[in-house]
Design a protein that fits this description.
This protein has 113 residues and is of the alpha+beta class. The protein has two helices and three strands, in the order ααβββ. It has a single domain, classed as Pantoate--beta-alanine Ligase, Chain: A,domain 2 (2-Layer Sandwich), CATH 3.30.1300. Helix 1 packs antiparallel against helix 2.
Length: 113
């Protein structure tokens, strides 16, 4: 019986961790898409990340920290935190990263016939 209960708790913990990873992935993807557009900013990316975290609920993902970096050519968004603990004293880390190029308008320089 103890082995069965331990197995059930470990499966529940794996499910909670998996959900926390999905929340972090969705957050980083949305923040990346807002930040990488031509007029995007780091502040808008941070705001979008907070909005997504608020909408998805912070139940499975605890202590979420969002870091958005935008350079002239590239945007990087990292979301980290820990999964809610089902098994006592087990703290599983969650970390996702989304990277993409900054979008820029490039006019067509070829002549149209």
């Amino acid at each position: 019986m103890p082995v069965l209960l331990t197995t059930v708790l470990l499966l529940a913990q794996a499910t909670v961790w998996w959900q926390a990873v999905h929340i972090a992935q969705a957050t980083s993807a949305h923040a990346l898409s807002v930040t990488r557009v031509q007029d995007g900013t780091v502040a808008r990316g941070q705001d979008e990340a907070q909005d997504v975290l608020d909408q998805l609920g912070r139940g499975p993902l605890r202590g979420a920290h969002v870091n958005v970096v935008r350079t002239a050519d590239r945007v990087e968004v990292e979301v980290s935190g820990t999964a809610t603990s089902v098994v006592p004293f087990l703290r599983l880390p969650v970390r996702t990263r989304a990277v993409g190029p900054v979008e820029r308008f490039r006019p067509n320089t070829q002549a149209v016939p």
